[in-house]
Write a structure and sequence with these properties.
Elements (H helix, E strand, L loop, with lengths): L1 H55 L7 E10 L11 E10 L5 E14 L2 E8 L5 E3 L4 E10 L13 H9 L5 E16 L3 E7 L2 E10 L4 E4 L5 E2 L4 E3 L1
Antiparallel strand pairs: 1-2, 1-10, 1-11, 2-6, 3-4, 3-5, 3-7, 7-8, 7-9, 8-12, 9-10
Length: 233
């Protein structure tokens, strides 16, 4: 009987100490969680504030443009009097901004060889392509040439360009470039909306040619980042 009373007193004492210490432990846990939250907020403020201030000041970033694919066919038919070449371009456009939305109204694409335009194509857009914050979308277009001199609204190609194009057909690969003119608008919040023009430039795109078939595709299997200057208009 005396032993059971002592045991009961000991258990009551342990319970008293445990209930006395538990608020302190809970408080320390809450403080640790609060400090971790404040630390994360501080990191986010220092990393995101510059970008946010740039956007809110009316200078959002241009879209990120990457070439996903470039193909060519019909190069084996290239000569001064006969040409039936077609280029296919596939790319991705991403809006890097946190608050701003991009509206792409009109896109014109060009394929170049040695900085000379081989062909131009207008991308059909029934309604503006909308890129919300951090959103990306895919765009593609084709360029088709039937004549180097007179070919509808296509630019005339200089003789020395045709010479080099014919000469390089025998090689395993040939370099082209892709450039675009993009007209659109940027909207930041409810207070800022402005018209812009962008000129993405994707240089030195190496095409692996199938010998004597005039067909080739982009050598690099990874997306290739393009340089995208942007101006107000």
């Amino acid at each position: 009987m005396e032993y059971s009373l002592l045991l009961r007193k000991h258990n009551v004492k342990d319970y008293y100490h445990s209930t006395k210490e538990s608020p302190y432990i809970v408080l320390m846990a809450e403080l640790a969680g609060l400090l971790m939250f404040l630390l994360l907020c501080t990191i986010l403020v220092f990393t995101c504030t510059p970008s946010i201030l740039i956007e809110l000041s009316g200078k959002p970033k241009p879209p990120m443009v990457e070439i996903l694919g470039l193909s060519v066919s019909g190069l084996n038919n290239v000569s001064y009097k006969n040409v039936s070449s077609k280029w296919g371009v596939e790319l991705a456009a991403k809006n890097p901004n946190i608050f701003s939305t991009l509206y792409l109204d009109h896109i014109e694409g060009m394929v170049l060889f040695k900085d000379e335009v081989l062909g131009v194509s207008s991308v059909k857009i029934n309604k503006p392509i909308v890129l919300g914050p951090r959103e990306h979308k895919f765009v593609s277009f084709k360029v088709w040439r039937k004549d180097w001199n007179i070919d509808g609204d296509q630019p005339s190609v200089k003789d020395w360009v045709v010479d080099n194009l014919v000469m390089e057909q025998s090689r395993n690969n040939i370099n082209f470039s892709v450039q675009m003119g993009v007209w659109g608008q940027i909207k930041s919040g409810w207070w800022l909306r402005k018209s812009v023009i962008m000129n993405p430039r994707c240089m030195d795109l190496s095409i692996n040619l199938v010998k004597n078939r005039g067909f080739g595709m982009l050598l690099n299997k990874k997306p290739i980042r393009c340089y995208v200057p942007m101006l107000d208009r």
